[in-house]
Amino acid sequence: MKLQRPSIAPVIGAIFVVAFLNPVSRAAETDDRGFQLCGVLRRGLKDYSNHNLTAVPSHLPHSTQYLDISYNPIHRWDADQFFGLSQLCFLKATHCGLRVIPPTVFKHTPGLKVLNISHNSLSFIPAISLKRLQVFAVDNNLYSSYKIPASFRDLRALDFLVLGSTAATTVRFHDFDALVNVSLNHLFLGAGTPWRKYDSGSLARINLQNISLHVSFCEDFIMLDNLLRDLAEARVRSIRFTSVFLDTCRVTGDPFFKLRTMPFLQRLSIESTWINSSFMESFVKNVWLSSLRELLFVNITYNEDTAEGFQLPTINQSISLRSVTFNSVNHYQYKYPTFNMSSKAFSELTYLRFSGTGMNILPCGLISTLPSLEMLDLSDNLLSESGFWWFQCSYASTFPKLQKLSLSRNRFISLSFISKKMQQMKTLKSLDLSFNSIHLDGACFWPAQLTELSLGNNNLGNAVFSYLSPNFVKIDLTKTGITAITQEVLSRFPKLEQLTLSFNSIQVFPEDLSVPTLLRLHVDQNAITSVSREALAGLPRLQTLIAGNNPYFCSCDIHWFITAFNKSLLPDWPFDYTCSTPPSLTGLSLSEYKTSKLSCEMWLQSVVALPVLTAVCTAISVIFWKCDGAWYTRMLWTWIRMKRRGKKRSNLLKNASFDYHAFISYSHQDSNWVDSQLVPSLEGNGFSLCVHERDFVPGEWILDNIINCVESSYKTLFVLSKHFVQSEWCNYELFFAQHRSISTQSDSIVFVLLEPIPPDSLPKRFLRLRSLLKQQTYLEWPSDERKQQVFWASLKSLLHMADKAVVLRDAAQDILDRIPLLTEQT
Ligand SMILES: *[C@@H]1O[C@H](CO)[C@@H](O)[C@H](O)[C@H]1NC(C)=O
Ligand SMILES: *[C@@H]1O[C@H](CO)[C@@H](O)[C@H](O)[C@H]1NC(C)=O
Ligand SMILES: *[C@@H]1O[C@H](CO)[C@@H](O)[C@H](O)[C@H]1NC(C)=O
Ligand SMILES: *[C@@H]1O[C@H](CO)[C@@H](O)[C@H](O)[C@H]1NC(C)=O
Ligand SMILES: *[C@@H]1O[C@H](CO)[C@@H](O)[C@H](O)[C@H]1NC(C)=O
Ligand SMILES: *[C@@H]1O[C@H](CO)[C@@H](O)[C@H](O)[C@H]1NC(C)=O
Ligand SMILES: *[C@@H]1O[C@H](CO)[C@@H](O)[C@H](O)[C@H]1NC(C)=O
Ligand SMILES: *[C@@H]1O[C@H](CO)[C@@H](O)[C@H](O)[C@H]1NC(C)=O
Ligand SMILES: *[C@@H]1O[C@H](CO)[C@@H](O)[C@H](O)[C@H]1NC(C)=O
User: Fold this and answer.
1) Dist CA 158 CA 186 (whole Å)
2) Alpha-carbon distances of 140 from 35, 50, 121, 191, 784, rounded to whole Å
3) pLDDT number for residue 521
């Protein structure tokens, strides 16, 4: 069967497309490999690159595993530069202008596995000897020879070597001798410039799996031929040519004829090269007659220099090729390329990729009838519904074995239309529609066998779930404008194993979530503030959770996630998890956020709180008892009652006048205390006292004396002790009996208890004293000196009330000032 180029005139989109949308980032790839080797992660590491350093930083911790000093003007290293860094595994010092590497500099870093000193000014490949070195990049320097130093014999672990210098244009026969016994996985050679001389056999003896050649061959295709013969002998399995022909080169003859006789070669990649259709014809013929299974064209410029386009007659041989990739094809002519070849050539193909080719119409039959094709990647083109399902093509039996189809980064719009068309692809399991302009424009009818769908980077919103099939096992909704997920919505997917919701605006992880089949969940880059135990309990089979880069609220809610959740389920832990709120913790890594278990767990709180509360109460009681808290309390009570009555009393007594502030009555047995403490203390403060015994008029009856004194005193102060009660009180019983009127003004009586006298312990006959003591405030004389101060203050204020109510306030203040003594006492 012959395939014609599509005979369609209308050009829907520009075909001349410079499409470098997927630049292969080699630096990141190779660096990642280094990180992997050293067991360190790319993020979370501080490096010293671009720090304008003129020397390697000193005081590096001995535990340093990773050191990047790239892009600093460090032109030389001392012999002991890395002294003490015995753990160093990864050293990167590119773009430093290094001129010489002292031979002994790495003797302190025996564990070095990755060394990148590319882009410097070394004039020789340095003679290093590191037994564990696996990755060594020394390309883009100034050396003029590829002569590998003899010390490389010791690099037994080396499997990734990058060499290249624009000044090195010849390869001598013995240059790679030192690598003869080293088993390299990958050798990079060249700096983009042509070689002037290549000695046949130079690379034939090294033990090599893959080679990347950044060398252009134009002047001398015999050199390329020799090189390929050597690589065949070295049993290389994969070759990558970068800029193999310069744009100015005119390719004649058949430079890749050797491919037919390279039985070990499986993979060939041609990158960043101009390719004419005339060359393509002879090249593809060679490929079909080779053992190659994989062919790649990356970033090529395609030019039809043959009048009939690309023509390939029927071939009559079984073909090994299984996988063809075109990634970024720049069409030199502003027209559709012409292909005329047998589809038999493709009959065994299982993988086909046309990315970045500017394709806007799928050539009828060319691709859709490939009998073995399992994966088709048409990403990054200009395809739309009408271009992919072109009306002039008939699709009776399309894509007989296709399982995976990527239409990512195209111009598709209608999800309902696509879902219907998918019914034609009877074996399709996986469809990628990410980065299109998909709209939800009507009911979707997905075929039952389709189980994986990616709709990432289309503006769809929460409604999208209603347009999906319950058969879906894998759903990718990255950046689709989803703001919430609910259990109700997810319960529609009983087979769901993988759900990707990265880069959305989901705020809450529903607690009633229950997706028993889910194995993998991505909710990174959302607005989630917390991940609860309840929500994850509904995902019993979860193996991977990606939930980094969310604005986590660091509080007790997150405590369980930080402490108890199995971190081996989180590949992005801990670097992508930081606190966002409260503001004081912004930027703090979740792994460093410490809340105590106690402050966050309710049952623990109550378990702990009970004994603590008991202990505190006990402690307070003990302190209260030890420090006579009861005494202070009583004093306070006294004062409060005093205050209540103060006003009334002061009005009552405003116009009355007395000779004495107080009449003091006491037993002569207590005269010692009265004379030494009470009288000096009160009289020293300006109180005038009528003191029983001292001021009694001799000869008068004791009761008259008492009455005289009481009547000329504002208050009557009894110093109560057991002695007083026994010897003196009977006089006062009589006195009260005679002067009921006075006794009613019980406020004028002040009792000072020198020792505790419980009212109930008094004999029944002292009925009045008992009742007075029960209703009357009294002051107890404390033995503690500090409490005595409070005592005096209280007493004075009681007596003071004669003068002015203001005094009362002063007294109150006085007492209050002393109250803190209570607490100090502990
Ligand atoms: C060495 O560093 C350069 C500059 O960053 C990078 O492009 C290159 O890929 C690195 N090589 C290796 C082998 O890591
Ligand atoms: C780097 O350091 C040099 C001197 O050490 C100074 O002159 C220069 O301005 C610095 N450059 C930057 C970008 O800081
Ligand atoms: C490689 O190994 C062989 C045998 O072990 C030995 O004879 C030869 O000298 C070695 N060559 C180099 C360059 O190490
Ligand atoms: C290099 O070779 C190994 C083994 O043949 C292979 O697994 C690997 O993918 C190759 N690497 C590249 C970059 O081709
Ligand atoms: C491709 O063909 C053009 C003429 O159409 C020629 O000028 C150019 O040198 C050729 N390039 C290669 C790489 O063969
Ligand atoms: C693509 O190839 C051209 C040469 O054909 C080169 O100049 C350009 O740098 C390449 N781009 C990438 C991304 O490799
Ligand atoms: C395609 O190639 C065959 C020979 O293999 C030839 O007969 C036919 O005319 C070609 N078709 C076009 C359109 O060039
Ligand atoms: C194809 O191969 C068969 C046998 O191998 C041979 O008979 C036939 O002539 C070949 N046809 C062509 C076009 O080479
Ligand atoms: C954490 O998960 C891993 C992988 O699923 C498992 O092997 C490991 O036993 C789990 N650890 C704990 C403590 O559950």
Assistant:
1) 9
2) 22, 19, 8, 6, 91
3) 96
Residue of 518, 520, 567, 568 best suited for mutating to test ligand 9, as the one with most atoms within 8 Å of CB? 568
pLDDT digits (tens, 9 = 90+) for 503-534: 999 998 888 889 999 999 999 999 999 988 88
| DSSP string covering 714-733 | EEEEEEE-HHHHHHTHHHHH
In angstroms, the first-to-last Cα distance of the chain is: 106
Compute the Cα dihedral for 77, 81, 86, 92 and give only its sign: negative
In CATH, what number is assigned to the domain containing residue 796?
3.40.50.10140
Instruction: Pick 670 or 487 by higher pLDDT.
Output: 487
User: Strand 160-165 to strand 135-141: parallel, antiparallel, or no bridges (unpaired)?
Assistant: parallel
The pLDDT tens digits of the residues spanning 724-760 come to 877 777 666 666 655 544 544 556 777 788 887 777 7
Residue entry with tokens 């605006």? 505
- The encoded tokens of residue 49 equal 């690159």
Distance CA 389, CA 380 (A): 17
Instruction: Determine the residue of 340, 341, 366 to mutate for testing ligand 7's pocket, defined as the one with the most ligand atoms within 8 A of the Cβ atom.
Output: 340
The structure's pTM equals 0.71
What is d(CA 55, CA 75) in angstroms, rounded to the nearest whole number? Answer: 8
- Look at residue 494 and tell me if it is in a domain: yes
**Tally of structural domains, the chain:** 2
CA distance 239 to 241: 7
Residues 501 and 634 occupy one common structural domain: no
Residues 646 and 582 in one domain: no
237 CA → ligand 4 middle, Å: 8
2 lines ligand 7 (CB under 6 A): yes
Q: Which two tokens stand for residue 367?
A: 């691709």
Q: Mean pLDDT check: name the lowest of 185-199, 278-292, 373-387, 698-712.
A: 698-712
d(CA 749, CA 713): 11
DSSP per-residue codes, 124-176: S------TT--EEEEEEE--S-----GGGGG-TT--EEEEEETT--EE-TTTT
Q: Does residue 787 belong to any structural domain of this protein?
A: yes
Residue 348's SS3 state is coil
One domain, residues 571 and 701: no
Q: Identify the DSSP state of 781.
A: P
